[in-house]
# Entry
Amino acid sequence: MSESIIQIQHLNKTFGEGPTAVHALEDINLDIRAGEIFGIIGLSGAGKSTLVRCMNLLERPTSGSVIVNGQEITKLKDKDLRKARQSISMIFQSFNLLMQRSALDNICFPLELIGVKRAEAVKRARELLKIVGLEERENAYPAQMSGGQKQRVAIARALATNPKVLLCDEATSALDPTTTLSILALLKELNQTLGVTVVVITHQMNVIEEICHRVAILDSGVVAEQGDVAEIFSNPQTDIGRRLVYPNGVQIDHLPASRVIRIAFNGGSSYEPLIASLAIDCGVKVNILGADTRNIDGKAFGTMLLGLPQDDMEATRALRYIQAQPDITVEEVPNHA
Ligand SMILES: Nc1ncnc2c1ncn2[C@@H]1O[C@H](COP(=O)(O)OP(=O)(O)O)[C@@H](O)[C@H]1O
Ligand SMILES: [Mg+2]
# Structure
């Protein structure tokens, strides 16, 4: 999982000109690795759709380069570009199925476009229907299917040409939570069984939490931070990161006047044993002033604010004890009073 499949270098996208120009993307640099599930998260209007559309040149970048599979596609002419695009497929929030075609014929459509014979296309479409769990519904029309089923057909259609990359722009945003989970499980399975690289665009943190290996946070057209999901989750470095990861965030106003520390759990054990052992091992009682922790794969991530005792020696003892714990980072919150 080390080789890169999509590299974005110094990419800029500006819509319009002059004083009304919109700088949708500014100096974006990303390296998406073959075989991973990469998430791009941001608030509405952050530039996510524009960025993902630049990955297959549905949108032409104003400057910068997009390298797919070692090929700088921003330099390709029409014919070669069409060929390169076959290795990148896309699914959308609104499914974008052809309403006048059955599930089977929707999946056959991209194969028809590249001249695959009918019998062969049908065979491939049936295989794909099976993979997405819809073999019983090949004759159903989009109007007769649920949102989850429509997205499954769209996924099957996207996979018809054996792409290396599947771009998903808010693919679960129109679905209820249960259906969202089933579609995410399908994407994860396709990633594992077919080895397809998946790029997930979303405004929902739980989507990232559910399936992504790495994530980039986009804020007003700029990558605010990127890294392993576990790292970003345990200790977001930017305001926007904290806002997305902990929407009910730990507030640091209204704190009492003793020393306050922020600890970040980086995937070690859960937090209760720490607070308990502080009391038992050091005889120090700390106040939990705020906590926003979550479990990923049974490991604790997140931050907690602790008020240390007024007594300086006790406070120092507690601090040293916490500093000695593995998988926990600690910092003093300055000037909170
Ligand atoms: N075709 C366009 N023309 C002008 N402005 C656009 C166009 N597409 C997107 N934008 C602007 O670019 C910014 C990013 O939009 P978008 O990529 O759709 O964000 P997101 O998908 O994160 O909600 C927004 O300010 C949007 O209004
Ligand atoms: Mg969008």
Summary: The chain has two domains: 37-61+71-235, 260-332.
